[in-house]
Every structure is written in structure tokens, then in C-alpha cells.
Automatic annotation (TrEMBL), chain A:
SUPFAM superfamilies: 2Fe-2S ferredoxin-like (SSF54292), CO dehydrogenase ISP C-domain like (SSF47741). Keywords: 2Fe-2S, Iron, Iron-sulfur, Metal-binding, Oxidoreductase. InterPro entries: 2Fe-2S-bd (IPR002888), 2Fe-2S-bd_dom_sf (IPR036884), 2Fe-2S_ferredoxin-like_sf (IPR036010), 2Fe-2S_ferredoxin-type (IPR001041), 2Fe2S_fd_BS (IPR006058), Beta-grasp_dom_sf (IPR012675), Diverse_Oxidoreductases (IPR051452). The keyword Iron-sulfur applies. The keyword Oxidoreductase applies. One of its GO terms (molecular function) is metal ion binding. Transmembrane segments: none annotated. This is Uncharacterized protein. Pfam families: Fer2, Fer2_2. The lineage of its organism: Bacteria, Bacillati, Actinomycetota, Actinomycetes, Micrococcales. It comes from the Bacteria. Coiled coil: none annotated. Pathway: Alkaloid degradation; nicotine degradation.
TrEMBL record, chain B:
The keyword Nucleotide-binding does not apply. It comes from Arthrobacter psychrochitiniphilus. Keywords: Molybdenum, Oxidoreductase. PANTHER family: ALDEHYDE OXIDASE 1-RELATED, XANTHINE DEHYDROGENASE. SMART domains: Ald_Xan_dh_C. InterPro entries: Ald_Oxase/Xan_DH_a/b (IPR000674), Ald_Oxase/Xan_DH_a/b_sf (IPR036856), Ald_Oxase/xanthine_DH-like (IPR016208), AldOxase/xan_DH_MoCoBD1 (IPR008274), AldOxase/xan_DH_MoCoBD2 (IPR046867), AldOxase/xan_DH_Mopterin-bd_sf (IPR037165). GO terms for molecular function: iron ion binding; oxidoreductase activity. Signal peptide: none annotated. This is Carbon monoxide dehydrogenase.
Amino acid sequence: MKPVKLEVNGIVHEVFLEDRTSLADALRDDCGLTGTRLGCEHGVCGACTVLVNNRPERSCLVLATQAEGDTIGTIEGLAASPTVLAPVQQAFRQAHGLQCGFCTSGMLLTAQSLLDHDPDPSPAVIRDWMHGNLCRCTGFDQIIESVQLAATLIKQDQAREEELS
Amino acid sequence: MNSTIPSPRETNTHHAFGQPRETIESARHVRGGGKFVADLQLPGMLHVALLRSPKAHARIVEIDVRQARSLLGVHAILTGADVQKSTSSIYTMAQMHKPPLDIPLHALATDKVRHVGEPVVAVAARTRAIAEDAVRLIRVKYEDLPPVADADAALASGAPLVHENIAGNLIMHRQHDFGDAESVFKNADHVVRRKLRWPRQTGAALETFGCVAQWQPGVDELTFWSNHQSNVLLWTLGPTLGLPPHRIKGIACDIGGAFGAKFWQPRAMVICALFSRLTTRPVRYVEGRVENLVGGDNHGEDRTYDAELALDSSGKMLGLRFSVVEDYGSAFILGPINNAEPLAQATGPYDIAAFAFDFTAVLSNKVPQAAYRGFGGAAHNFMLERLVDAAAVELGLSAVAIRELNLLQPEQFPYRTATGNIYDSGDYPTALHRAVKESSYDLWRERQARAREVKDPTRAIGIGLVSCQERSVQSGTALWLMFDQEPGRNTTAAESASVRIDSQGSVRVALHSPSLGTPTETIAATVVAEELGVPADSVSVSRLDTSMAGPAMGPSASRMTVMLSGAVAGAVREVIEKMRPLAAHLLEANPEDLMWDPSRACFTIVGVPESSATLAAIAHLANGHALRLPAGCRSGLESTYTYDHPMSSMPHADGSDWGNYAPIVGHTVHVPVVEVDLQTGAVTFLDYFVMHDCGTVVNPDAVRGQVVGATVQGIATALTEELAFDEQARPQNTDFRSYFLPTFLDVPAIRLGHMETPSPFTYRGVKGIGEGGRMAAPAAVVSAIEDALSPYGVRINEVPVTPEKILKWLGNASAAQ
């Protein structure tokens, strides 16, 4: 066991871990952030996706010690506060982009990352960008529409901000 | 009709149904705030890892746990011998058979292992990692026994026995003939026949199964947190654990998908319970993904059909019969449910008078079968639609024409099928015609004809079309197959709900069974809004644990929308009746002169709408103002209502009629258009259209999600998913790198057409919808691929249709020319 400092959602957590502890386990068991889900622990399903330095990563395949010094973002940090929703979260609710909710954390973070790169993705781009995230419930159509709705909501937010400034 | 919801004034106006609505569940899930079983952290909690058998069939000679026991952090270790000492066999449906079948199931293997992945030793340790380390230090000596790898091997003479007291590995064999199928087949102009193979697949929810057990000494009470679909069945573990059933309490966590695979998972529950008794600590087990796919008691149907359809010279269907051999694996956990359940819709949407079947259930050295979305209905519909397609080809009819000729007509409902199950309602010809039109079926046929003229050797277009039933709202009487001539020991599977209105007029609903993402919490709130008139998003929904829950079964067999809406509506209406004398008191009117007005959420005097008592005013009076209450009234405003299955009926004693056990019947038509790459065998979709009818729609987006999600699972059933076994009964598909779930890139956008034929027997005419997509898509996709390959004479009688198989069939076809 050794101390490891993890910067998650802007807060530095000092936790004591074995070398073999995965980032996913450290986030869930030691930082108390259980919104990151474990679906396969083989790096296939994408449920454990978090943002490491703003890039989507499988937290089941990264050792926690490897993430020391990185900026980590989880689902709990996606919105500005617990009482508001980021546009991508609002869009998944509105367009029914989830059913059981187990893939949703990883799906939202991957979607956010896509929208950061491409503010207006086509369905084909969404399918390509997000195909590393499995969903067993929805059949994907409503997720694709949710991402497109999120793009619209973000643009509306930006337009509103420009109007105000 | 067994069950009626008290209905003082039934109205046809919908206040809340059919409107787009964000789900209650999604508010927590988009924040990562769902509480799944793996998220539970209890003080002092221990974690379980299992040593699972690497062998399909072997005698356990010796188990050495000494090294594992001495590892720091290990608290307790259990072997089969310990389990046998402290529990009796787990109650499975094998014991419901008359006479009981001697197919015991223990939480850990005792004398021998019967499938790869069978739990042999369990370790409880401070962390999961330590428990897994300890498992690696355990040495087990096995003596190999010859494995039974499939149904043919099971039934071969002199086959090794999976369970010593089940001769010939034969669990049960039944033959039934309804409507004299034998003579119908003898006299028919045409008989088409197909032999079909359907291998194992599984729900593979992204969340694996998990549970936490906490034993409380002194009161000798056991609490389970789990992601069981049917945690209401936990009391059945009482005899196994030697506890009075009411001392077992189940708390449902959020469930990360189930699809039948979490219907009933007793083994790990028993292990965690025993560990908690040993250590007095909370004990958690969560399956790893490999454990889930290999040893998780969740595999779906595994069968071979020899099926025949009898027709007259015009193409009118006269009779259906088949023999089916089902490989249930090494136990009989859910009994023959995967074979009994589909027979509620044995003859599909067609008017077929005669039906017969021959059913053989066998044991093998595979993990026991359980449920997967449809309880065997996907394979059954596949069998029937393959026969219909074959008949069309042989008789020179189009896929549309043969169905037009044989579909049940709207005036035939309620329709009694050959087996006695009732179809409540439907309009199948309209569904077919709309599907043909809205899928642009004829345009695709023209495009196919043009493509065939060009004779492109690299690709071929195929169009599939199937019309399928989606039976819903299962009654447990479906298990009649267990009882031969003495049916009726089974539950009719009720569902309960509680509604309480507090002094502020706020409405709380408690579900008595777990909720999935289907989304039952939202449906409950929507029914309250529909009946009472308060906004759905103002309703608070929670789940009762089983210690105070009433009769309930939870989500399975597409039953929740019907059963839960019946229960919630019943409870709301009882609460309204409790409010009536209070409102009359407030309005100084006669109670009989009042009516509840859901559009304003108040009682009004009939004919004097301006004279009203609001929900808030009545609720205030009702909650703790006894001195102001009218005579004969008590404080409190709540109701718990148990809704019985609306149409369940008993099988006839002589077996000639199996009664009603899934009579609320939805319908769907699937039209996929595929392009097959003739050089690689790859299948891509050019279009996919689904026409569906699940009666009155409560939440259109949720219905769409169910239809599309299930259809996509069915596409993967047709193309990629298989749990294969080698000749030593070793599983070949052990993780998501070899068991291929569909991804964003593998499936098309699904276009939907909606129809609503309300059920005359349910609350507001709702029907189930959860399984239909998967019950139809495999048949549809295979139909499309066979259509594409028809110029090459390819006939497809199995799933999954992989590129390798397509190339092999094309190779065989060209070699034959």
C-alpha cells in the first residue's frame, strides 16, 4: 500500500492503494465516486469510461498510480453542480438515451468528449466515435438522437451567452 | 375475468397516458447516482471470490484450502461439504414436478462438478483482490468423468449420467395433440418440414449479477440486497437455509439490465448467507464477466426442432406440429418454462386449428438454463416463421400473400388458440398492410429484381418479412407441463402497489417489487396522474423491501405495465373512495352526488362543477384531524391494492386445454432489408422497419426504447451471439471478446410504425412490450438473408448466421452446380 494523489473533478484525493489497484476501483472504493460503472473489466464495454486529461479512457485498464498527476473527470463532475445538468445530461433525459442507466456514465462522458471535438456530429460520426461504449438496452437510436439534441442545446446555450455579453 | 379494478366512472379521456415524459429513473442515472449492488459499502463488509470448476464433469477427489486459509485478510472458506452440512438442496422447479425430480442443486459442488464454471470453493476476505488471491492458492484434485456435451450425447444409449437418479439424462418427455393434428397431417395437400437448431445465448446485461447478505443474530433474520428481478421469491430460500421464510428480507437495488438473466440466482445468495452467518458481517459477491457468461445460471434456450406445417393446396394453414429436444444443462432451475411459455402463442398470429408437439427435456454438462428475453419465444417464433417462409416458396406464394391468407381476422377476437390460451385483441391484417406500405416493401422488391438482373457476383439484396405474436402478462399457471394430469399448484402471479396521500396532498407510491429501466417507476407515477390528475412528476415513487411487500412477481415476461397499472389504478381508486365522504362533508353534499374530476384533481358535485373539494383540502382533513371527520371515518389516506392476473385460468384436468396463462397479446411485423457481401459473408442493413401494436401506449419514448432495444438484441441473436461448447462441453465464448454484443456500428436505425389495439381486459387497454422485438427479429433477419441467397438455393435453419457459415453455404451451393 502506498499513498497516491488523484485529482478528480477538481479535488485532490489522497488515497492508500496497492500498486495493482485499477483507477476504476480507486475511484469507486476509495474516492467514493461510484458513478463509474464496471461492466466487463476487460476494456470492452466502455461502462467505466472516465476522462483523463479530457480524453475518454477505460478506467478498468488504467492503474490508479498511472493516473497520478493527471486530471480525471467522472460523471459526478460533468455538471456544474448536483442540482443542474450539463446539456448532454439534459439531452439524454429528454430524448430517452438510457433505460437501466448502467452504461450511461461512460456513454455521457464519451459523448461530451465527442461534442468537445465536433459540435455538430452526424449520426455516422456519433456511431463511429461512440462504438466503444456498449448499451444492451436501447439499441442505440435514442442515444444518437440524445447526442444530437445535446449539440443543439449547447449551441442554444452559447447563443444565449453571446446575446447576454 | 378474475380481476376487476373498482371503477366507479370509467372515462376514455387520457390525462397522462401517451404523452412524452422524462423518466423518473433517468434523473439519477444521468448523474451517475443510481445505486447498484456493487455500489453498496457496508461497515466491515467481506467480499467473496469463487473457485469455479475448469471441468465439465469430474469427481472431486480432494480440496486443499490450507494455504488459502492462512492468507492475511481471509475470513472464511466454504467447500461443498460445508454447504451440505448447513443447508438442504436449493429449491428449484425440479421439486415442483410430480413426483419431484431428483436433480439437486447445491450452492457449491459436493461430490462432483457438473459443468465448467460450477462453484467449488468460496472464499470471503477483506477485499475482492485478497479473495481472488486466496482462490489461486486452493488446490483441487479432480478425477475426470466423460462429459455429456449436448442433447444427442445425453440421449445416446450408455451415456454417462449427469445426475445418477435421472435415467438416460431424460428429465421429462411429453406429447400433446390438440385438434387431431395427426389426421390433419395425414390428409393435408402439402406438408413442409424444417429441422432447426437454436444454440444458447444470454441476456448479458452490462451489470452482472450481485448480492449482499447480512445475517442478524438474535432475531435470526437475513437481509439480502441484490439485483434480482424476482427478489420477491427470496422466501423460497428459507427451507434451504433452515430459516422461516418471513425472516428473509430482500431489498432491491437499481438493476443494470436483466433481460431474464437475473430472474433467479440462488447459488451466490446461499453462499453469501452462509458466510454472513459464519462471520456476522455483511458479505458481498458480484460476478465477474467471465463468471457471468460461463457459470451464471442465465443461459437461454438450447434446442433442436423437427417441425412441420400442413397446408391445403391454396396455402391455407391446417396444422402445426413439432418435436423439440431441449438441453437444460445440469439442473432444472426454472423447470420447463422456456418450452411451456411459448406455447401460449404456439400457432402464432395464424388461424391454425390443429397443433401437436413432442417435448423432450434432457440434462447435460452445461450450466443450467434460465431465462432470456422471451422465455423461449424467440426460438419458437423463428421455427414457425421459417415454416411459413418455406411453405410460401414451395407453394409459389409471396411472403405477404401467405400471411394475408392465414392471419387471424379482427372479428375473431377474443380468439381461443388450439391449446386454450386466449388472444385478447388484435388487427393483424392492418399491421401487415401498413408494414408493407410503410417499409416500401414493393420498392425494395423492385430494387432487388433490378439488382438480380445485373447478376452482381459480389453482393445480394434480401428482404425479410415476419408477422409475430408477443404474448404478455404471464401467469405462473404456464408451468402446467410439470404436473401432467394434476395442474394448478402454481401462482397466478399477482402484483401489488401502495398509494399514500399525505397531509399536504402529495402522492407517494410504493412498488412491491424491483424496478428496471423499463421504466416502472415512471409508469406508476403516470398511472397516478392518469387517475388522480396530479402531475406525474410530482409523484414520489419508492420500492418496498420484501418484508412488507404484498404478493408480487416483479418484471418478467412483459408483465409489469399491465400488472402495475392495474395495481396502482386500483389503489388510487380506493383512495378516491376514501376521500369521497370527506369531500361530501366539506361540500355539505351527498357522497353519491360527487364525482372525482381528474382534470382538476378534485371532487365536484355532479352538475355543479364550480362546487369542488380539492385534493389538498381533503388530504389535510384526512391526515390527523379526527375531530373534524364525518362519522364513520378514520384518519389516514392510503391503500395497498393487489391486482390479480386479469384472465388467468386453470388448465383442464385431462390436459386437453392448458388454460390462459399469457393472454394479453401484442403483435409485430418486421421488415429488414439486408445486403449480403458474397465474397466476405458480411451482412449489412439497408433498412429495418418494425410495425408494432402493444395496445394503449403509456409512454411513447419508453415503448420505442423497448421495441428498438429488443429488436437490436434480436438482430445480434440472428447474426453474432452464441454460447458454443466444444465436444468436452467446454464453453467457447467466455467474455465480450468472443461473445459479440452489437455495437453502434453493427446495427441500423430502426424505423417504427405504431398501432394501438387496446386490450379489452386490462387497465386502459395496455399490453406488454418488453420482449416482442427479440421474439421477431431473429426470424426476420434470417428470412432476409435467406431471401438474398435464394438464387443460390441456400436454406437457413439455424442462428447465428455468421459470415463463415454464409461462405460455407455459398461454397456448397456452387460445388453442387
